[in-house]
Design brief:
Layout (H helix, E strand, L loop, with lengths): L2 E3 L5 E2 L14 E3 L42 E3 L6 E4 L9 H14 L4 E5 L3 H13 L2 E7 L4 H9 L3 E5 L2 H13 L3 E2 L6 H7 L1 H9 L9 E5 L4 H15 L8 E7 L4 H6 L22 H10 L3 E5 L1 H13 L6 H12 L6 E5 L20
Parallel strand pairs: 5-13, 6-7, 6-9, 7-8, 10-11, 10-13, 11-12
Antiparallel strand pairs: 1-2, 1-3, 4-5
Helix pairs in contact: 1-2, 1-5, 2-3, 5-7, 6-7, 10-11
The structure holds zinc ion.
The site of zinc ion (ZN) has 7 residues, from loops.
C-alpha cells in the first residue's frame, strides 16, 4: 500500500478510485521513491527526465507538453534565486501536476473529468486534457481572471461559474457524485508526483548542494506545490542525495491566511485578495501543510494587498511579468529582510491576470 490517511490510519493502493480516504480525508504518499541520479534521462528536458522516480499506474505513457526544467536565475543581490515556474507551457507550475495526473488518467482510461479552480489549475488541466482527448469540466469562481477563463475556453473546457472559490469546491462534488472523475489538484495524490519534481530540479540545478541552510519560498493556498516539494525533498534526503531538508516558507495573502492563522494561533477575518491562486479559506490538506512547515523548521508569512501590488511592479522592474499570487514570495522575502540562500518560486505568468487594476488604459494616440 502506498497511500495513507493521517486521520484514520487506513492504507490504500494507488488506484483510480483512491483519490481520497473513505473517511473523507485527503491521502498522502506513505512510501518514498528512491532517488537515483543515474536514472535521470539527461537528454529529456522536461520533468519526465525523472520518470523513473515518479509513482505512476502501470503502462503509463507521459502526456507531456514540455513542462518542468524551468530556469533558476539570481536575484539582484546574487545571494538568492528565482525559479521561473511561470515559464511552464500554460504559464504556471500547475502544468507539472496536470501532466502527471493526465498521464495517470489516460492509463486508467478515463474520458471525462471535473475540477474546481481559481484559474491556473483549470487552465493546465484543460490544456493537458484536450491534448489527451479527455473531456473537461471546470468549476470557476465568477471573478477569476479573464485571461485564465479565455485560456480554459480556448482549450475546449466547459466552464461552470460559481459565486466564489469555496462554492466551486463544493459544486464540483455534485458532478463527481454523478460519476465524472475528479481531476483535483487539491486532492489527487498523483498531482504531488508532478509538483515534487520542483524539489528534484532545484537539487539538480544547485549541483545537489541544497540543505537546511536554504529556504524555499512557496505561495500556499491548497498546498499542492508546497506538499509536492516537501515530498521531493523527503525522497532526496532519504536517498542521501542532499544532507537535510531546506526550510519551507509558505506564503499567504494576509486577506486570506488560514495556515498563517493556524500556525500563529490567530483569529483572522477572511476576505478577498488579488492573489487569487492562494485565496483558499479551507485547505483540505491544512494539517499536512502545517506538519511539513514545522518539520523543516520553516515558517509561514502573510503579506498585505499593497505589498503584493508593489511586488508585481517591482518584479516587472526586473523584466519579469508575474501574476499577483506568484509575486507573494518576493513580498514575503522582502518582509523578512531578504535573507540570503533563499529560493523564491515565481509560480504564475502575469499575462493571464488582466484584472481591471492591472489592465492597460487605452488612450488614443498612445
Ligand atoms: Zn481516513
Amino acid at each position: 500500500m502506498q497511500l495513507i490517511c493521517d486521520s484514520c490510519g487506513r492504507k490504500w493502493a494507488m488506484k483510480r478510485e483512491n483519490w481520497r480516504c473513505s473517511c473523507g480525508e485527503p491521502l498522502r504518499w506513505d512510501s518514498l521513491m528512491p532517488f537515483d541520479p543515474s536514472a535521470i534521462e539527461v537528454s529529456n528536458w522536461s520533468l519526465w527526465r525523472y520518470k523513473g522516480m515518479l509513482k505512476l499506474p502501470e503502462n503509463a505513457v507521459p502526456s507531456s507538453l514540455g513542462e518542468g526544467m524551468t530556469p533558476l536565475i539570481p536575484t539582484p543581490e546574487k545571494k538568492s534565486w528565482f525559479k521561473l515556474e511561470f515559464l511552464n507551457p500554460t504559464g504556471s507550475f500547475k502544468d507539472r501536476g496536470a501532466s502527471v495526473l493526465v498521464t495517470g488518467m489516460k492509463a486508467w482510461e478515463i474520458s471525462e473529468v471535473a475540477e474546481d479552480s481559481s484559474g491556473n489549475a483549470g487552465v493546465a488541466l484543460s490544456a493537458y486534457a484536450k491534448a489527451a482527448g479527455i473531456r473537461c469540466l471546470i468549476f470557476v469562481p465568477k471573478d477569476a481572471s479573464e485571461g485564465k477563463i479565455s485560456a480554459m475556453k480556448k482549450f475546449g473546457a466547459e466552464i461552470i461559474f460559481c459565486s466564489n472559490r469555496q462554492e466551486a469546491a463544493e459544486r464540483v462534488m455534485d458532478a463527481v457524485s454523478s460519476g465524472i472523475y475528479y481531476a483535483s489538484h487539491t486532492w489527487h495524490p498523483l498531482y504531488l508526483q508532478g509538483t515534487k519534481t520542483v524539489a528534484y530540479e532545484l537539487a539538480e540545478q544547485m549541483d545537489w548542494e541544497l540543505d537546511s541552510n536554504w529556504s524555499v519560498f512557496i505561495p500556499v493556498g491548497n498546498g499542492d506545490l508546497l506538499l509536492g516539494i516537501y515530498l521531493g525533498f523527503c525522497e532526496l534526503v532519504a536517498s542521501k542525495i542532499i544532507k537535510s531538508q531546506p526550510k519551507l516558507v509558505g506564503v499567504q495573502a494576509l486577506a486570506c491566511a488560514p495556515i498563517y492563522a493556524a500556525i500563529y494561533n490567530l483569529t483572522l477575518p477572511m476576505s478577498k485578495t488579488i492573489a487569487e491562486g492562494v485565496a483558499v479559506v479551507k485547505p483540505p490538506r491544512i494539517k499536512q501543510i502545517i506538519a511539513a512547515i514545522r518539520e523543516t523548521k520553516g515558517d509561514v508569512v502573510a503579506v498585505s494587498e499593497s505589498a503584493i501590488l508593489n511586488a508585481v511592479d517591482e518584479m516587472a522592474g526586473l523584466g519579469l511579468w508575474v501574476e499577483p499570487t506568484g509575486v507573494t514570495t518576493w513580498a514575503a522575502w522582502k518582509q523578512l529582510g531578504k535573507p540570503p540562500k533563499s529560493i523564491l518560486l515565481l509560480t504564475g505568468a502575469g499575462w493571464k491576470t488582466l484584472a481591471p487594476s492591472l489592465s492597460v488604459e487605452r488612450v488614443e494616440g498612445n
